[in-house]
């Protein structure tokens, strides 16, 4: 039976948390005297683009849940985790800039606006991404007061952004696109996608890609919120499992949206994944089974959120939101 | 009068320090189960390429000078600073991969071997660079034991690698190439490079680029060695000034080498900078004045090294080496 969300509608949203995130991002987009204007412009264009801010919001939501402060995050509690919130958004923004490059996914539209290499140029796009990654680590090193928490946060972020997670997932995703037989050097596709075992292997491979590409940074966001707010190990572990399911569900719904939505609703060119034969959930399972997959993952994530009892409401809402979103 | 180097020849070299650096780099090039083989291969290809290892050696040399351990760095003293040594080499390797990309400097040869995007492909080159930057921060976060030193090291590395330094310098370098009138949005070139004031402005601009592009990581390397080995503030400051002069000298001699050397000696295509009208010291000052500039910078760096008295010998040798190197 589906877990019902908040008993009231008070935390069916994150609008009360948004202003702090936006203010934090704007304040962080000051890159120093030696930063060329055009580079800073490109970095701001990417970071301050209209966006869901899902990852920084996750940082705040984790702090809220772990601190038992539902709807009552204090300014000092926000300040404590804000370097983590800004850092994950910078990592996310950099990864989008690089993913959109001609040598990668070759997208010219992102959130309804020209991508960075279209609005600026390819060199600036590469460099803006590079600089945003460094700035993400600088945010934590410069603005987290407790050294022990700062270094744990750096560890979390570096792992999630690294070769075995964010970047590795993207690399496998690209390689699967051009060579679905050879993801990670293993044969994942047998005779046809319809065949039982080969289809299962392909699904496992797709899941592994999504878990690293999207899930790792989702999990890192919640873990950063927990660590920077001084949460218990139990709270970190529950959030970790919540995040794992949620992150994968987010990617499945993303695939489903691309499969069914039109370009206007989506803010990027719809159906592009299918056009180029990219490995997707609806492509592999069919759209109905793919939607069911998303529902299952969301239920699993909500079960983990219950650890936080009365403070779980916004985590439950988010799970519903990920399932129901249209863009 | 030039400062004479070591009274003995014992520290006219770094061969005794190399094995530790190579072992540290090899040990660090293990990127975890989730890292696709091809991505790991590209990262190793870049990091373990034959190279001068100048930056990691600087980390060790700083620890040696600050610890008064000339020629006697203990295994535990090496282990203490090795995460910093590995991290700077990873940042350096990533920046070379990205600088060589078609949208950037478009080089197909590096240290006599095909560049990463030639040997692998462009997408893997972008991703290998991205992952190496994350791994650099992971090295420090995971392997420096003292949290206070770890976070200071992260701060140093993130600043040097960031928008106002390494990346900003490269961005200005690229923009100067295509638009020498508009570096940093200011007009730096008047009527001709021969004109007094405009030539001075162009030189200032070139110096600013090199200071950020090369100097920042040189300085960071020495500072990392100092911080990770627990050096005094005075020692850090002296090393900082030594590094600033040395880093700029390195870039001047690099320009001079490109201007005069042939492709075989250099391991990259000689004269390429001049071909594309890139801003260089010999191009701006003439080769003789540019060589004199390098000599002056080296003397200035050697004066700072004298702070370390008996432990300065290897720092003095390095200064001479930078001046005299042929590749």
From TrEMBL, chains A, B:
SUPFAM superfamilies: Terpenoid synthases (SSF48576)
Biological process, per Gene Ontology: terpenoid biosynthetic process
KW Magnesium (keyword) present: yes
Gene3D superfamilies: Farnesyl Diphosphate Synthase (1.10.600.10)
Cofactors, names only: Mg(2+)
Any one GO molecular-function label of the UniProt entry: metal ion binding
Residue intervals passing through the bilayer: none
Keywords: Isoprene biosynthesis, Magnesium, Metal-binding, Transferase
Family membership: Belongs to the FPP/GGPP synthase family.
Official protein name in the record: Farnesyl diphosphate synthase
């Amino acid at each position: 039976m589906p877990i019902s969300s908040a008993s009231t509608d008070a935390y069916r949203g994150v609008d009360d948390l948004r202003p702090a995130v936006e203010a934090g991002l704007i304040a962080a987009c000051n890159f120093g005297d030696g930063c060329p204007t055009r580079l800073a412009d490109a970095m701001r264009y990417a970071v301050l683009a209209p966006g869901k801010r899902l990852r920084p919001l996750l940082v705040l939501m984790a702090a809220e849940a772990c601190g038992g402060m539902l709807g009552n995050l204090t300014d000092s509690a926000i300040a404590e985790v804000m370097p983590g919130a800004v850092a994950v958004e910078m990592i996310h923004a950099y990864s989008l800039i690089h993913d959109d490059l001609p040598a990668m996914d070759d997208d010219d539209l992102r959130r309804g606006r020209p991508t960075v290499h279209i609005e600026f140029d390819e060199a600036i796009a590469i460099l803006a991404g590079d600089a945003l990654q460094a700035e993400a680590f600088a945010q934590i090193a410069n603005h987290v007061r407790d050294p022990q928490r700062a270094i744990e946060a750096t560890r979390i972020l570096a792992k999630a952004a690294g070769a075995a997670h964010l970047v590795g997932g993207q690399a496998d995703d690209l390689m699967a696109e051009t060579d679905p037989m050879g993801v990670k050097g293993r044969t994942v596709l047998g005779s046809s996608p319809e065949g039982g075992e080969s289809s299962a292997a392909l699904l496992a491979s797709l899941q592994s890609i999504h878990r690293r590409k999207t899930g790792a940074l989702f999990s890192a966001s919640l873990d950063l919120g927990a660590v920077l707010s001084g949460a218990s190990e139990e709270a970190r572990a529950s959030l970790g499992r919540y995040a794992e399911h949620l992150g994968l569900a987010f990617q499945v719904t993303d695939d489903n949206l691309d499969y069914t939505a039109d370009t206007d609703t989506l803010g990027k060119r719809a159906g592009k994944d299918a056009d180029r034969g990219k490995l997707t959930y609806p492509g592999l399972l069919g759209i109905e089974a793919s939607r069911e997959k998303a529902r299952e993952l969301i239920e699993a994530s909500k079960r983990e959120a219950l650890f936080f009892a009365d403070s779980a409401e916004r985590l439950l809402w988010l799970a519903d939101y990920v399932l129901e979103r249209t863009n």
